[in-house]
Design a protein that fits this description.
Radius of gyration: 26 Å
Number of strands: 21
CATH class of the largest domain: Mainly Beta
Oligomer: single chain
CATH superfamily of the largest domain: Lamin Tail domain
Helix content: under 10%
Structural class: mainly beta
Strand content: 25-35%
Distance between the termini: 59 Å
CATH architecture of the largest domain: Sandwich
Strand order of the largest sheet: 16-15-10-9-20-21
Shape: globular
Largest sheet: 6 strands, mixed
């Protein structure tokens, strides 16, 4: 990794000298009258900051700044898997990393650079990302459990609707940029009708293998020979009653599917529209704003979410057997006791 030099801007040095003069004057004046202090101009000492990064296409990573960028320092660092990259300012607040070849979607890459604003304030930054996958299949979050037991730990099942490759697709407990746990999928060719099972509370045993060759590679609790099994590193289980799950094109975002679940109501609290916390409310609002959840009123409410109250380790929250998706709670039901079915089509029977 290349380390870029840092040069203090002239205005900052001038301010520092003025402050040093003030300190010296205070130290030498004793109890007598202080000499008049010089007037220091109101200067910009705040470096630019990054407000958003996104993959525009397989060979361009876009970085948006909060203020105009005047200069890019010589030299851009990158991880070994990246073969050639430059950073150009496309307009005042937008920089674009342009790659000589598309970075692979199944591994994490990084780029590093330094920019300066008009006042000469420098920002040195390192960004981590995965390449863009143009072969992603259509998928939906199909079934999940959040109140797992010792023998039936928490899991999320994904139904694959079209052929493709899942490299870089990411399942979050949370949303991109605000999450507790996530899993980034390896490069695996999948077919329409396949299932993927992500285990959120692994035991950490050698038999828990992230499958890339065969659906029969992995052992471990609830591993299935009829689905691609994956294990969240250090996974601690999902939030039992209130949470969001999102499936995205890559770790930076690009929603594929989402689900909101809760056992709360609008009357549960006054401060967070019933959702119980700012964190959950903001995540729910983000999913609604992205168009991945529909709601009845002026603002999304707990009553618009999947009701998790009667779910258990064996009574999953599940879509219908045909995996219907209208981005609403109407797609979901609680299965009967022992109705959880990772790696198989869901039952349409409901817990009564």
């Amino acid at each position: 990794m290349q380390h870029l030099p840092f040069h203090a801007p002239a205005r900052r040095r001038q301010t520092a000298l003025a402050l040093l003069w003030v300190t010296t004057a205070l130290a030498t004046a004793g109890c007598g009258q202080l000499p008049p202090l010089p007037v220091v101009a109101d200067v910009d000492l705040t470096p630019p900051s990054i407000v958003r990064i996104e993959l525009r296409n397989p060979v361009e990573l876009v970085v948006r700044f909060d203020e105009p960028i005047a200069r890019v320092s010589d030299g851009v660092g990158a991880s070994d898997a990246i073969d050639g990259v430059i950073l150009e300012i496309e307009d005042e607040r937008v920089g674009v990393f342009r790659f000589a070849a598309a970075p692979a979607p199944e591994i994490e890459h990084w780029v590093e650079a330094q920019v300066a604003d008009r006042a000469g304030n420098n920002l040195r930054f390192l960004l981590r990302f995965h390449g863009l996958n143009r072969l992603l299949p259509a998928m939906v979050i199909n079934e999940f459990t959040t109140k797992g037991s010792t023998n039936r730990p928490d899991m999320v099942e994904i139904a694959v609707l079209t052929d493709g490759n899942i490299a870089g697709a990411t399942l979050f407990e949370g949303i991109p940029g605000d999450w507790e746990q996530r899993f980034v999928f390896p490069s695996v060719d999948v077919e329409a009708g396949d299932f993927i099972v992500v285990h959120f509370r692994p035991d950490g045993i050698p038999e828990e293998i992230n499958e890339t060759v065969s659906k029969t590679q992995s052992g471990g609790k609830d591993a299935t020979d009829t689905a691609w099994d994956y294990w969240v590193p250090g996974g601690t289980g999902l939030s039992s009653n209130n949470g969001v799950l999102t499936l995205t094109e890559n770790p930076l975002g690009g929603y594929i599917d989402a689900v909101i679940y809760t056992n709360r109501t609008s009357a549960s609290d006054d401060r967070y529209r019933g959702f119980g916390s700012t964190k959950l409310m903001n995540r729910v609002d983000a999913i609604a704003a992205a168009g991945h959840w529909v709601y009845a009123g002026a603002m999304i409410a707990p009553e618009d979410a999947v009701n998790s109250e009667r779910s258990t380790a064996t009574r999953s929250m599940a879509r219908s057997s045909d995996s219907r998706d209208t981005n609403s709670k109407d797609d979901w039901h609680i299965t009967p006791t022992s109705g959880v079915s990772p790696g198989r089509a869901n039952t349409d029977e409901r817990f009564e």
